[in-house]
Amino acid sequence: MMDRRFRFGVIGGPGAQWRELACRTEELGYSTLLMPDGLSLLAPLPAAAVAASVTKTLRVGTFVLASTVRMPRTAAWEAASVAVLTDHRLELGIGTGNPWMNRAAVDELGMPETTPAQRLALVEQTVRHLRELETTAHTPVLIAAGGPRSRKLAGQIADIVTPANHPLADRQEIARIVAEIDAAAGPRADRLEYLMNVLIVGDAIPRRLAPLAGDDIGALIAADSLSLLRGTPRQMADEIQRRRDAFGFSYITVNELFIDQFAPVVELLAGR
């Protein structure tokens, strides 16, 4: 596995203060601003284009598109368009979606019912169409890899991989997942970049994040969860370095709620 330099991103939901969040993200030294997908949110690809328009070097992306919400060629066309319009600062994140997103795709958008295998095939098709549409620069693709088949696909076609593991997954499980993805990648394993999304920074779980992280900070602490970072900026920086050494995670994202709290860690580690 390549010894990659650290970079950091913020995951934020587009809203009234979106332009300000983009500027603040860049000002604090983060390298990316990523948007989740959801029918109750603003569409992430137009939001990415807006964020890029008010910043100079900030990379923008999706975390992550649900493959069931858009036809593969449509998703690829929109992503390729945004990549060009942002001077190729786009990172396209995609995955198979969660159960409620996939249900909403059927009920609200009229998309067809899909099996897990079909949803994964849609991910592959979207990436294939994106590569066909690209004429110059290569758009990095991030795949959220959950089960064995998605890990295999991520190893084969992704540039960036984030394990879609449960917040209480132990470190042995994370090591096994990374090894599985590396094995699927074969000779290209050294080119993969591993992203760890830190759900919680500090000693409390904000109510807004409880659906993702649970509401028991003690359970995360007891599990030694990689979804949690605590302590002083120096202590958190040291822990992040240990995680890179152990698992290869060099791309770290945090929720926008922690953008200022985590900024001293970014200052300590970005580019190192």
From TrEMBL:
Protein name as it appears in the record: LLM class flavin-dependent oxidoreductase
GO molecular function, one term: oxidoreductase activity, acting on paired donors, with incorporation or reduction of molecular oxygen
Domain Luciferase-like: 17-199
Record-linked SUPFAM superfamilies: Bacterial luciferase-like (SSF51679)
PANTHER family given in the database record: ALKANESULFONATE MONOOXYGENASE-RELATED, C2H2 FINGER DOMAIN TRANSCRIPTION FACTOR (EUROFUNG)-RELATED
Domain of life of the native organism: Bacteria
Keywords attached to this entry: Flavoprotein, FMN, Monooxygenase, Oxidoreductase
